[in-house]
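Hello forum,

I keep getting stuck at the same step: I have a sequence, I want structure tokens, and every attempt I make locally crashes halfway through. Rather than fight my setup again tonight, could one of you with a working pipeline run this one for me? It's a single chain of 160 residues.
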Amino acid sequence: MSDFSQTTLFAAMANVMAGVQQQVAQLNAAMQADYLVTFNNWAQRVLAGQTPEVNPPQPPNAYVVGSFTDATNAAAQWAYPVVGTQPVCVMPPLPVMPVVVAATAAPASTASAQVGSKQNVPVGDTMPVGYKATAPDGAVWQKMASLTPFGTAYYYERVA
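Reply #2:
Ran it on my machine without issues. Output:
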């Protein structure tokens, strides 16, 4: 049977240090996963034309093992997790906007199309979201995007 009264201060500090090192690793793994989801969501909004490609989310600073001296015993140094000065990971590459190859014609306008009408994007369309095209009858159509559970849906909406 173990005699717990024989446990030393140094053994206790080593156990605390080992536990805090594990905790720091878990905190950093969770923080990195959360950051990458946040960055990916921002990148998807940029590619969909819903937000400008400025001010991307920056990685937060990682946790490190800190220590403090016990006020009741100057020989006791206790470990604890503290936010450090280095990022938890490197920032992923910024999203690359598709290159516009050539202007496409406005969607075929029908006499009954009212402002707010929607039409599918024509085959081969490479215009960015927000592009406005004027049809021969003077109707103005704007390329739009909408996030769906199945991906991003692109369409033209009559705006004038």
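The mean pLDDT is 85. If your local run keeps crashing, start a new thread with the error log.
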